[in-house]
# Entry
Amino acid sequence: MYLLTYIDRVNVSTASNIFEKELHLDKTQVGFVFSAFAYPYLLFQIIGGYLGDRFGPRKVLTICSLIWAGATILTGLVNGFMAMVLARILLGFGEGATFPTATSAMSSWTRPVDRGFAQGITHAFARIGNSLTPPLVVGLMVLTGWRGSFIVLGIASCVWVIVWFVLFRDNPRLNTRESHRKSSPCYPATPTKQRAAVIRYHGAPCLCGCCRLHLFISAMAGPCGYF
# Structure
């Protein structure tokens, strides 16, 4: 999932040299297209985490993933500047809520002593997504055009959503492949303990993530101010 989300968020930079000419965008407008993703992403990092705790990662992550997959497809169908910005905003909404919800899902399926390693794997795949995006998108643009590249990636994301929804369960004990395991469930015993665990395990990463997002927004705003 982390690999797909990062491909779907940075693919726009690889295709920008092509779509800016077709859509007749200047450099300032392209800067707005890049930065439009960040603001809803910031907002829904917090809201998405609450929704994931309230309704369960399976439902919330399925809906969020459909949003960012659909936004990726819509990006390939836009006909102008405002449509492109709206598609990027929609992508930010979906992906912003995805990551805290995915962390909640991961914490339910891993023991506390294994969560750092599991989180490291997810972050590694995010960086792999960044590195794969340029050659992947260029290859797809050669075969299908820049619009087709977004549509293909969006469809691939939708396939992942279906697989996720079919296979994943919020509680590992409800998964038949895990029912034979003798390990105790990973959930905290009570809602109070669950909230305490969220603060203890995710408070510092959340703060670091906000700092990283602030730097990201600053970097995105820079080109807009320059041009």
Remarks:
- The mean pLDDT is 79.
